Each structure stands twice: as C-alpha cells, then as structure tokens.
Amino acid sequence: MSIQGRLAKLQSLLARVQRRASDPARQPKAGVITSLEAASAVSTPPGASVVAGTATLGARPQATSQPLEEAAAAPAMEGSGVHELTTGFAPADAELESTPDVEELSEEDLVEMSSDVLESVPPLDDVQLDDTLDTELERQQLPQDELDFEETFEPPASSRRPRTVPSLDEVLGFSPQDEDFDLQRDVPAMTPPPESGPQEAPMPPDMPPPLAPDFVALLESRPPPSAQVPTTASYTSFAGMPAPEQLGQTIDLEEPSGPPLELGVSPTPSPPPSNILEELEVTLPVGIGRHDRDLALPADLRDELEAHRQLSSEPASAPNSVSPEAFERASTSANAHSAQTASAEVEVGRPSLSGINPVVARAPERTRHPSTFAELLDASIALGV
Amino acid sequence: MPALRFDPTASVEFDLDRGQIALRDGAERLLVPADALVALYESAAPEAKKDFARRLGTETGRRAAERLGDAASAGVDAVVEHVGGDWALLGLGSLSLERWGKALVFVVSGSPLGGAGDALLGAILEGVLQRAFGREAGAVRLVRDGTQVRFLITSRAGAHRVHGWIESGTPWGEALTRLNSGVGS
Lengths: 385, 185
Prior knowledge:
The structure holds two protein chains of two kinds.
Chain A: H1 3-21, E1 33-35, H2 36-43, E2 54-56, H3 68-73, H4 93-97, H5 115-119, H6 126-140, H7 149-152, H8 168-173, H9 180-183, H10 215-221, H11 232-237, H12 244-247, H13 302-313, H14 324-336, H15 373-383
Antiparallel strand pairs in A: 1-2
Helix pairs in contact in A: 13-14
Chain B: E1 12-15, E2 20-23, E3 28-29, H1 34-43, H2 46-68, H3 76-89, E4 94-100, E5 103-109, H4 118-133, E6 138-145, E7 148-154, H5 156-167, H6 172-181
C-alpha cells in the first residue's frame, strides 16, 4: 500500500471517529479510558503517528488531552514498528466529550507502519509530555477547581478499610486540615473486601424447596376475637373496672315474688352430758394381789416343794458344802413328807439335780523328760534345723 | 561307773618353789588378769579367737568326758556336775542348765570376763559339746542379767536365726517360744 493510500485510510478513520464522537449517547460518563490516538496526539509532535493502543489514565491532574482534531490533522508517516504510549492524566469533561470510545475501534483501524517511519519519530520523554499537557491546559484555560478528581476516582464503598483509633500523639502531630492524617490511619486489609455484596446461598441438593404458607389454614386456625386475651390497654382504660370482654353476656334477674325473708341466728343445741368421770381412781375388785392359802397344790410340784423345804430346814453350818449324799437324803425325805406338807405354804423351788455329777477331773499332761544329756542336746539342736 | 559328784580335791597344784601352777593331770596354767585376757581376746583375729576358745572348750570337754565315762548315756545332772566342775576350775564362773521346752540353755554366773567375754564363753561351750559329745552345736547369748548370762544351745542355723531375732529386739523368751513352735524354720 502506498503512502497516499494509507493517508486516505487514516483520514477516513479520523472522519469516522469524529462522527462518533459527536454522538452524545456515546460519550462516557467518567472518562477513564480514552483512545490511543488522543493520547498520542497530545504527546507526539506533528509528524508522528501512533498505530494502536490504549492509555491508562493515572493521577496527573494538570495534564489534559489534546483535541482529537489536531491529532487527526497531523500528517501520518510510514513505519512498520508499533509504539505504545502509556501516560496518565485526568481528562476534563470537555475532552471526554470529544474522546471516542476505544471499543469502537476495529481491526480495520490498525495501520501498519514501517520501522523507518518510527525512527523518524523523536523519542518522547516525560518532560516533553508534561510540557505539552500544560500548554494545552493553559490554552483551554480550564479552571482547576472544576477538575473534580475525587468524584472521578472515588473508590467503591466496599473497598473502604477500617480505620484505627489514633493515639494522642498522632492527634497532636497532625492538624485537622492535614490530608495524610486519615491516610495514615488506614488499617491494612487482611482479607479482600466483599466486592460482590450479599449473595444468596445455594440450596442443598437433597433438601426440598420450601412450601408456600397456607394462609387459608392459618386464618381458620386463628381463635375468634372474643376468646382473645384482653390487652393491657383494655385494662388500663377502665381504671380497675373489668373490660367488656371479661363481663360477657349480662343476664337480668327477675324481681322476687315471695314474702321477704330475714336471716337470723339459730339457737345452738346444748351438748349432751358426758359420761366421763372427773376422777380417774378405780376401785379394784377384792382378791387381786393376794393368793389363797387353801389353793390346792399341783401334783407334779409337791415333791419339789418338799425338797426345797427340807433344804431350807437344814442347819446353816455348811451352806456351800452340800455333798451329793446329803442332797439325795434330802430328796428322799422330801418325797416322804410330801403328802404331809401338801397343805402347807407353797413356794417355788428349783428342779432337782439328783443323779448328775458336775465334777470333771482333768489331770495335767505328763511331759517326757529326756533321760540323758545327749537326748536333751539332740532335741535342742533339732529345734533349729 | 562314772562318779556322780565332781571331786575337785587336789585338782590344782601350786609349786611355789618352781613358780608353776598345774592341774591334776599335769597341764601347766597361768594366773593372768581377766581384763588383760579379755583385751587380748578382743584384739585378736576372728580365727584366732575361734581357735583359742575352741581349745579351752576341747580341754574341758575331754576332762569331763573322762570323768563321765560313757558321755552319750550320762544324765543331765552328771553332765552339769562334771562339766560345771571343770568350768569352775578354769575360773570362768558357775555353770548351770535350764530347759525351756525342748531348748537347752546354759547359764553362766559370776564370770570374771564380764559382758566382754560372753562371746568367749559361748565359744568355749561349743568346744565342750563338740569334744565331749561329738555334736556340732551353736551357742547363742540370749540375755545377760547382771553377772548372769544365758546361752541357747541349738543348731548352727537355729543359732543364727535366734541371733537375728534377738538383735531385732525380740525378747529372749519370745525367741525361745518361736523356736519351740517351729516359727521361721
């Protein structure tokens, strides 16, 4: 393609860009991204040409973009290289209106440039770019106060970081107008802020979807208004009187038709005389506590009684040394006189122990003495074996 | 027929011209202080102590056995009479015998050796029994009450066991009871 052909193509491209830029609907709300042609038109001197690229606009408030018409009017030069220009500035509203959308550029807008054309382009440095932007800003005489960069670069609400409570030294060290006062109190975010906001949690796959409430059933299950418990307001409104809901239905009673009745105290009947004696003394019947001397003695106790009498009639010379012979003799005599003393005074005696020998003789065990010394010595030696 | 009574007549001969002392059988003796003998005994080696005590006991047992004749059939009284007589000729005190159950206990009273010579007395008794009756027995000191000391005659193992009980504080009567009941055997 010849130079003339390329130049014609560039001119057609420029015309299309101007046409689209004049469309108010295509103007960006906040000009953050602009075309490379606009940026290159600002930074490149006449005679230089930039093929394609995007420019990221940074924080450089004193810079502004050059009108696109001048960039388009600059003569294009052949070149095969690609020069990407990255610069940063905050565009004003005026420039943004004339800035075309970079997304509108198509593949047809790409123009190949030869290396000799790019070599003819002088190197672009920051100082030169700044001077160009300052010159353009002064030429348009835009007021600095109209450049509201904070609105343009206001961070989203979700990206705000929590701020720490400043210490007393920090407060005394900064003035209220100091901008770095708040910046230095930013707490470094440990986790990324939730940019997407609240999200709906996904439903578990095995859980059935919630059912819609049955309003008809709820209304039917609601108790009637009369059965509801009166509120506190209904109690307080009557100042201690029962509420109408508490009274219920009032029934009027008929007037009494009979004679008037009077209530009186009936006389209490006197209690019957009690039969309880005041004195607790009881007269015992005659005969209790005594015994009859003429009472007949049982036949089986007569012998024992006589034996006891015989023993008691013995002289008290040796009361503790009663021999079995004496005891037997006493028993025999007791039996002989049992009939004669049957009518005598009766006493209770211990049963007879005749025929029982309570003495058991125990002889000490005879120990065997050794007859010789040798036996004694052997026995003693054997103890320790 | 052995003599029932020990006759000490002319048992010791003092030859003042020659300056010698001898027993009836002609064996020469020395009159030495008892405390000096005890000091010499205590400073001697254990084997020397044992040999010295056994030698004294063997000589006493030999003389008693000669008087008793058949020592194996000699009665207790005869043995005490003759052994005690020779014991007295040595100047070791009065010897008597006690029976605590089956245990044989010798009692030595009035020994000039005192408490320090109890071990020597026990070893002499062992030598007497070994020489006169041919029994290997051990003599254990049960208790010393003033000038009287008791020795239990039993086997070597039993003597060692009773000695342990006495050293641990067991009363000697309790020790004899244990020995007679067979505890610890």
